[in-house]
Amino acid sequence: MEFNDEILNQYEPGEFRRGQIVKGTVIGKEEDGIVVDFGGKSEGFVPEGELIRPMDDYKIGEELTLQILNLNYEERSTLSEKRPIFRKTMEELRKLYEEGKPVKARIVSQAKGGYNVVLKGVVPAFLPGSHSLLKREEPFPREEIEVLILDMAHTRRGTRIVVSRKAIQERKVDEFFSEKKTGDVVECTVRRINPSGIEVEVSDGIRGFIPRSELSYDTRITPEDVVQVGQKVTAKIIELDKDRRSVVLSLKQLMPDPWNKVEEKYPVGKVVSGEVTSIHPFGFFVRLEPGVEGLVPRSEVFWGNSRKNLEDVVKVGDLVKVEVINVDRENRKLTLSYRKAKGDPWENIEDRYHVGNTVAGRVISIIRQGVFVELEEGIEGFVPISELSWKRVDSPEEVVKVGEKVKVKIMNLDKENRRLSLSIKRTQENPWKRALEELEKDSIVRGTVKKVVNSGVIVQVEEYDVEGFVPNNHLVSEPEEGKLLNLVVLRIDPDEIFGGRMILSEKRFEERMNIEEYKKKVEEESYQKSLGDLLKNGE
């Protein structure tokens, strides 16, 4: 082969020879290489395997340094871009290997156990799969990557070079955890978003996490509101764990803290607007601005001792006015008052309500002793069980239900102690008025047994919307609910609380009937005797 080359060289023009270094200009591209003009009688061709860079990187008109591999004046000559710099590149690579410095590499194909790569676009090397940071089933990157030379071994075929991408990454990770400290600011890329926070890539091989609580001072914000996958963000390192190779970062610590000026913006006594964010048994929270929320305690919702549910007053999302009543910047707490911002309804209550007035209200709660009636928000009064009806009431539920609208009469107003005494029955006509006018002692009435008690029976008096009481010792028949009794009034008196009281007797009625029957019998006997005497005398 060397003999034939020498013979061929004798027939080549004196200006060119095989192995000569020449300048060539790119004049075209083909599927497997580029076409150049190197000044010869025919054009030159540089196969893709003899190029330093990917073919797409070459531009028409670009000048290259080439070595002639084969001269062919009838067709075209073959040239190489790699050959002129191969020896120099090998020297550079050996120096980089000895100094432990990285080198640029381009993957050209998959091979058994790894990948074939080209270093500096010239020197072939091998990248083991375990050192590639690549998945076998995925396509390998076309752009250049950084690698570290692990070994340069001489063989009969030349120098065999083994490189590692993983070693570069491990070195970068070690450098990161050695150089970085808490408080440093880094740029990272969002890789994954989940409800608890954001996973980011700080650099190759270094993953970090931004907890949801560190996204913003606005606690209601979600990760999706802040970032998107693939987005680059600047974050502050708040925790480094070298052993676990973990990094915790914060976005909000690079933002101005709204609590720094909270005392200036929200002084005690100031009325401000905010949005209801959550409701709890102990109160509700109001968001004044992103990152600043305050609590309205239950005691600062109502002016009275209301038993209302907070959801009946406000809903999540409502815009409300509140008054600032306490600022604790150190513990990031604001205490707010809903009722003070609305104004105290008891302040001028005497202008709206007077003793003796009849007003409308709504039953808001019922207890054994009576019912509470709300006249307006913050103003409620109490109706004792004795003031519910002119009739006997055992349970308030017999008369009213929660939520029912009722008319009440104001019996007493105590502004200092915030108390209103009300009456429902006094808004109605007193049925005892007619009974007291028309009935008296010894009057005869009829009554239906309404209830049997230990000491007697309670009866509903016919023709009068009142109740009377028949003691056991004044009953003749066996007491039974619904039974109609003939009765005599033993006593009837007016009563300030119940309107009146009436004591009745079935026994007295029976006695009276017996006397009337006796009188009638005596009269009949007397009449018959007189008639007999007359007839006798007439004979």
UniProtKB/TrEMBL annotation:
Residues 19-82, 183-252, 269-339, 356-425, 442-507 form the S1 motif domain. SUPFAM superfamilies: Nucleic acid-binding proteins. It comes from Thermotoga neapolitana (strain ATCC 49049 / DSM 4359 / NBRC 107923 / NS-E). Binds mRNA; thus facilitating recognition of the initiation point. It is needed to translate mRNA with a short Shine-Dalgarno (SD) purine-rich sequence. This is RNA binding S1 domain protein. GO terms for biological process: rRNA processing. Pfam families: S1. PANTHER family: PROGRAMMED CELL DEATH PROTEIN 11 PRE-RRNA PROCESSING PROTEIN RRP5, PROTEIN RRP5 HOMOLOG. One of its GO terms (molecular function) is RNA binding. PROSITE patterns: S1. SMART domains: S1.
